[in-house]
What we know:
The structure holds two protein chains of two kinds. Chain A is mainly alpha-helical.
Amino acid sequence: xxxxxxxxxxxxxxxxxxxxxxxxxxxxLHAMGLAIIVGINVIVALRLLGYVPEIPVxxxxxxxxxxxxxxxxxxxxxxxxxxxxxxxxxxxWMFFVKLSMILCAMVNLELTKMKVFDHPAVVNGTGVPPGxxxxxxxxxxxxxxxxxxxxxxxxxxxxxxxFGF
Amino acid sequence: MMxxxxxxxxxxxxxxxVATQDWxxxxxxxxxxxxxxxLIGSVGLVDLRMLGIAKGVPIKAxxxxxxLGVIGFFINATTGFIFVAGNPVGGPQEYLTNLAFQIKxxxxxxxxxxxxxxxxxxxxxxxxxxxxxxxAPMSAKVVAALSLLxxxxxxxxxxxxxxxxxxxxxxxx
Lengths: 165, 173
């Protein structure tokens, strides 16, 4: 199964094609998507923490489609990179830390939408509900660890030396 | 000039630091990605708003996040300097002669000039003056579109530094 995916025509193309639209472009897309989703999340989180109160929180809801765009780009590019590198990634525990953090961050984002953005106080522009801080802090925390783990996925020997496994 | 830059970079001893401390490179990589997200998150959002997305968010208020992008930029300038000066394979020359790196640096320079133009030509003042639901002037939209294009170009060519061969291949060089 793993071999079949890794040796599929698509995975081989991603990994071995000398075209700029193969591995390198997909890697670029993955960085761009990260910048979009994490960048917007951080700004929204900072607003929820009380920075720049002149920005009406309700209006930031319009940024959700852009966060989903960043996520979709990275899910697609990430799956492509995973297919090309499946065996290595599946043996890399840091990769699973990254995936769990992204899962937590996305669940947190949906909860933020339901509990904060759908709350009457936000909709009516009278403030934010209690507990808003928690979602904002968790957002920054999950994305921070996701980036750290994502980068460390590329340095298994360093991880081995420092963590012992 | 390239020799002078190389000599200066090697005189900092950063190459030795990177070679003897295995954590320096991965930690700088992590910081470089944080810096990128801060820069795109803050500057990119102002750009999107000027292009008409998320109306209702006042441009002037959104601009208060730009210092965060400036912090991101300096994190990346510093970690970027460490990558070039401390490159364990081939030294600074390897970067300085790398086409993807050269294009990335030129794009950063143009993006900086674009931001400077935004503030010194009065376009920023015009954009700030519109109502929260208002439409930014065409000049601001041009600056915003250029900014997004340039910064995403920086990411694009940044990723190509390690795969410069595919870029040269695509260009027939």
